[in-house]
Automatic annotation (TrEMBL), chain A:
Cofactor: [2Fe-2S] cluster; [4Fe-4S] cluster
Taxonomic source organism: Ramalina farinacea
Annotated protein name in UniProt: Electron carrier
Record key words, sorted: 2Fe-2S, 4Fe-4S, Cytoplasm, Iron, Iron-sulfur, Metal-binding, Mitochondrion
Domain Fe-S cluster assembly protein Dre2 N-terminal: 28-158
Residue span of region Fe-S binding site A: 243-259
Cellular localization per UniProt: Cytoplasm; Mitochondrion intermembrane space
A GO term from the CC aspect: mitochondrial intermembrane space
Molecular function via GO: 2 iron, 2 sulfur cluster binding; 4 iron, 4 sulfur cluster binding; electron transfer activity; metal ion binding
UniProtKB/TrEMBL annotation, chain B:
Keyword terms, alphabetized: Cytoplasm, FAD, Flavoprotein, FMN, Mitochondrion, NADP, Oxidoreductase
Gene designation: TAH18
UniProt xrefs under PROSITE patterns: FAD_FR, FLAVODOXIN_LIKE
Leading EC class: oxidoreductase
Cofactor names: FMN; FAD
Native source species: Ramalina farinacea
Subunit-level organization: Interacts with DRE2; as part of the cytosolic iron-sulfur (Fe-S) protein assembly (CIA) machinery.
Name of the protein: NADPH-dependent diflavin oxidoreductase 1
Membrane-spanning intervals of the chain: none
Length: 339, 632
């Protein structure tokens, strides 16, 4: 990768607003200091000296752990974990709870990274590596990055007042999006936001005429996943008492049956079919491929054989055959029935 | 109003979200039940009733609203309810937004899916949050119930009816309309001659236009069998082109094909119903009461353009091969005078005969046409055909083309991979899928109407850098092929840009992440689709293809086994390089088995505990890094 060259591949959309690429000097850094360092201001100063003070914030890790401070969302390119006063991470590691890590990830820009001063974060310690993965970070060797695109979902494709409809349609239809190819994981548009439908134009913020799921970007909607709590999900079936399954009744196979019931039912059905075919074959032998239903004794005593499956008895040899009129010829030809 | 006793304060809305038509059917049945209680009832797709219209409808205000919806995908709303749902989720809606609405909800689901009836549960919660009042407890139908959806729907409706009669008592001397009285049809067909020179009104035209705008005419260029003739399964690769410079699509999107009934099926129905006279006449569909359209009632047929002949209507718009639903039998009972057949039809509609109905219809996959041929005394008036026969719905197929193969000059191009559906039941005649039979017989040069649907994979070029794990056995490879061609195009586009800037120093491979295709089928020789394409693509971008041929060795191997075999690489790509996992193909065991395999791989090679691996997968789903699209 050539870290300094940036390419705007915004295909022919020069008027579309593109986020300016920040010069390297303005990369924002957050330093997280363990409490032990507060009694050694000279160390803190020496660390600070290596950073552009105007683009660097510092917070105490213990205050963060106690939720005494809150971090801004998606601001930092790097979060640097400072070493304890004794040059280790013993103290600070204990403060790095799941909650703290989650909040650090939130404060990172997409594509931003977390490091410790000694480069050991999520590298040496297996449980720390797991915690980083579970916090949604991509851990690859010694780099620990926030994925580049899952937070920025609503930004580039947003059909807002600023972007005209044409720009949004293009972005959706042709894949003309802003890309930053210099670093493979820099800000890119939406992974989770779906592109607008082809030909969709315009949006409407009006309460009275909501638009077809495009004008509202996700951040203006409540998260529907939060609507159902554990109880709602566990809840199996709301059934009126009268239709609770009764014992002894036949079960049906699921659409995606994996327990074998479907095969069993299929086997029953093909046995039924085979049995009926066998009986038909007997008739065929008797009557030289012609069955005359006007002749007494050729139909069951129920007299319903000719009427179709809706009226036939269980085990009727004509099951699965079309209805026919008494007196009509039924020819049995090579497994095909013709009336 | 049709029944003469309705006052404006006695009106109801039944609003549905439906993917396959079950919720429409339930809603129509609810609508009829409410009409019998003298409620002027509008039955409408949820997307036709924006939330604001619940507040200020043209019927002043509804006495109550019944919401009926199935659940699709991962606990999602059906496509004709998504817009409504999204607008109901807006944060800016005040907590008393729906305070004047009284409602009940009914859900259709399948308890073999983990997100059983989530759509209706979410809707129920959100309606309450927005201040609406529930007048009757939610009902949930389960496909797995021994009596199917009706097992819950019938008792729920019966009880609702008596609750409503208490709550909204009928005036002295007015009785509910009994079941054996046929309600006047809401929509009727008429021939052009009967129009008295009247043009279809503007509202009717508008409805048609909106439905038709999404259709595109395409020409079939190739219909190629992908499996050897000796193989039991017939799988086709179809290649369509259509004139359009504006239409475009993304990997994962679906093409909807509108099938036609076979000439012989249509003729058999005409013979059976004695519709010979009218078959060649031009017909159009009209509401019997014009206020229904302005009130938002959804017409029974969509995409129906005037004028077409009655025979065309039967061929293209009405489903003769659908499995008849219970309400179909109750309608038929009105159209026969033969008491023997009428009694049997009515029996099939009774709750205690649901088992018999199932054995007669769903289990052997008996078609409407076959039922009508057995109940030969039934003569449906042609004017009512569109009310009695269900709409012939389009069927969706995942698009298999992507990248440069999406266009051909000024044409848009679609390729699909279709397994032709044929199977046997206890009925002697072989069952065939309506749409796949139609496609199998389609000749190159044929022009057909299609439309495009957004799929759920949400693929964007922004994620080009990410590696992808594509698990797509069988015809599930179609969207994967689309994505692979798309990524190849991204790769070429991005490299040429880098070349322009940097004088072509050729570090292209890292611009687009690795693609890992995990493919499974029965035999390498029979159904390893697109094998030669993969080879040619591998020269141009990083693509690995791992295969499971389940029947090519004594022990069966499936895609989930391949996930285990390639576990180290897959775990690394997902955990360290932010790979996206796509799982496409037939629903059933495969998706769960693949998910389980991934979880195992994260444990084994990523060092996660079982619980952490599951948490990680759940997080991937939430972030859109685990995407699944399966079909039954």
């Amino acid at each position: 990768m050539a870290p300094t060259s940036t390419i705007d591949s915004n295909l022919g959309q020069s008027s579309q607003s593109t986020k300016p690429v920040q010069p390297a000097s303005s990369l924002r850094t957050l330093l997280l200091s363990p409490p032990s360092l507060s009694s050694h201001p000279e160390r803190l100063d020496s660390v600070l000296a290596a950073h552009d003070r105007s683009a660097t914030d510092i917070q105490m890790l213990d205050r963060l752990a106690l939720s005494l401070v809150s971090l801004p969302d998606s601001l930092y390119d790097t979060i640097l974990l400072l070493l304890d006063a004794d040059g280790t991470r013993r103290e600070s590691k204990n403060l790095l709870t799941k909650d703290v890590l989650d909040r650090m990830v939130k404060a990172l820009k997409p594509g931003g990274n977390i490091q410790s001063q000694d480069g050991s974060f999520a590298v040496d310690d297996e449980s720390e590596r797991r915690a980083a993965i579970l916090a949604g970070l991509l851990v690859d060797g010694t780099t620990v990055e926030k994925p580049s695109d899952h937070i920025t979902a609503s930004v580039p494709l947003r059909v807002g007042k600023r972007n005209d409809a044409k720009a949004s349609t293009n972005a959706a239809g042709t894949g003309a999006v802003t890309l930053n190819i210099n670093g493979k994981r820099k800000n890119g548009p939406t992974a989770t936001g779906r592109p607008a439908d082809v030909g969709y134009v315009g949006s409407d913020d009006d309460l009275e005429t909501p638009s077809a799921g495009h004008g509202d970007s996700d951040d203006e909607l409540i998260d529907e996943d939060t609507l159902l709590d554990e109880d709602d999900i566990k809840l199996n079936v709301v059934q009126p008492p009268s239709c609770r399954p009764k014992p002894g009744k036949r079960r049906r196979a699921c659409k995606d049956c994996t327990c074998g019931l479907a095969q069993k039912l299929d086997a029953e059905d093909s046995a039924k079919r085979a049995n009926a075919d066998e009986n038909l074959a007997k008739l065929k032998a008797d009557d030289l491929a012609e069955v005359d239903f006007t002749v007494q004794g050729k139909v069951g005593s129920c007299g319903n054989c000719a009427l179709g499956d809706a009226f036939r008895c269980d085990g009727c040899p004509y099951v699965g055959l079309p209805a026919f009129k008494p007196g009509e010829e039924v020819r049995l030809l090579d497994d095909e029935i013709q009336l | 109003m049709s029944n003469g006793v309705v006052s404006p304060d006695r009106s109801a809305l039944v609003a549905y979200g439906s993917e396959t038509g079950n919720a429409v059917d339930c809603s129509e049945e609810l609508g009829r039940a409410l009409e019998r209680l003298h409620f002027a009832t509008i039955v409408s797709a949820l997307d036709h009733v924006p939330p604001a219209s619940l507040l200020t409808s043209s019927l002043s205000s509804y006495s109550f609203v019944l919401f009926v919806t199935s659940t699709t995908g991962q606990g999602d709303f059906p496509s004709n309810a998504k817009t409504f749902w999204k607008s109901l989720l807006r944060k800016k809606l005040p907590a008393d937004y729906l305070k004047d609405i009284e409602f009940s909800t009914f859900g259709l689901g399948d308890s073999s899916y983990p997100q059983f009836n989530w759509a209706v549960r979410k809707l129920h919660k959100r309606l309450l949050q927005l201040g609406a009042a529930e007048i009757y407890p939610r009902g949930e139908a389960d496909e797995q119930h021994e009596e199917g959806l009706d097992g819950s729907f019938v008792p729920w409706t019966t009880d609702l009816r008596s609750k409503l009669l208490n709550r909204f008592a009928l005036p002295e001397g007015v009785e509910p309309i009994p079941d054996d009285v046929l309600l006047p049809p809401k929509w009727v067909l008429s021939t052009q001659d009967n129009l008295n020179g009247e043009e279809p009104d503007k509202a009717t035209k508008a409805v048609e236009a909106s439905h038709d705008a999404t259709r595109l005419t395409v020409t079939l260029r190739m219909n190629k069998r992908m499996t050897p003739l000796s193989h039991w399964q017939d799988v086709r690769h179809l290649d369509f082109v259509g004139q359009s410079t504006s239409v475009s699509y993304d990997p994962g999107d679906m093409l909807t094909i509108y099938p036609e009934n076979s000439t012989s099926d249509v003729q058999q129905l005409i013979d059976c119903m004695h519709w010979h006279e009218v078959a060649k006449n031009l017909v159009s569909l009209h509401p019997t009461e014009p206020w229904r359209l302005s009130a938002g009632e959804t017409p029974p047929l969509q995409g129906f353009l005037h004028p077409i002949t009655f025979r065309e209507l039967l061929t293209r718009h009405l489903d003769l091969n659908a499995i008849p639903r219970r309400s179909f039998f109750s309608l038929l009972a009105h159209f026969t005078t033969d008491s023997f057949q009428k009694d049997r039809l009515i029996e099939f509609t009774k709750p205690e005969y649901l088992d018999e109905l199932y054995d007669y219809t769903t289990r052997p996959r008996r078609s409407i046409l076959e039922v009508l041929q057995e109940f030969d005394s039934v003569k449906i008036p042609w004017q009512c055909a569109a009310n009695v026969l269900p709409e012939l719905r389009g069927r969706q197929f995942s698009i298999a083309s992507g990248g440069h193969s999406k266009r051909d000059g000024s044409n848009v191009r679609f390729e699909i991979l279709v397994a032709i559906v044929k199977y046997k039941t206890v009925i002697k005649k072989i069952r065939e899928g309506v749409c796949t039979r139609y496609l199998a017989e389609l000749k190159p040069g044929s022009q057909i109407n299609v439309s495009l649907q957004k799929g759920g994979l949400g693929v964007t070029q922004a994620e080009a850098w990410r590696p992808v794990i594509l698990v797509g056995p069988g015809t599930g490879v179609a969207p994967m092929r689309s994505l692979i061609w798309e990524r190849l195009q991204w790769s070429l586009t991005l490299s040429s840009k880098v070349d322009n800037r940097q004088g072509g120093n050729g570090r292209h491979s890292s611009l687009v992440g690795n693609s890992i295709l995990v493919y499974g089928c029965r035999n390498q020789a029979a159904d390893f689709f697109y094998r030669d394409e993969w080879r040619s693509i591998q020269d141009k971008m990083p693509l690995s293809v791992y295969t499971a041929f389940s029947r090519d060795q004594s022990s069966k191997i499936y895609v989930q086994d391949i996930v285990h075999q390639q576990g180290a690489e897959i775990a690394r790509l997902v955990l360290s390089e932010g790979a996206i996992v796509y799982v496409c193909g037939s629903s059933g065991k495969m998706p769960a088995a693949v998910r389980g395999a991934l979880s195992g791989v994260f444990e084994q090679y990523g060092g996660l505990t079982h619980g952490d691996a599951e948490t990680y997968l759940a997080r991937m789903e939430k972030e859109g890094r685990y995407k699944q699209e399966t079909w039954g």
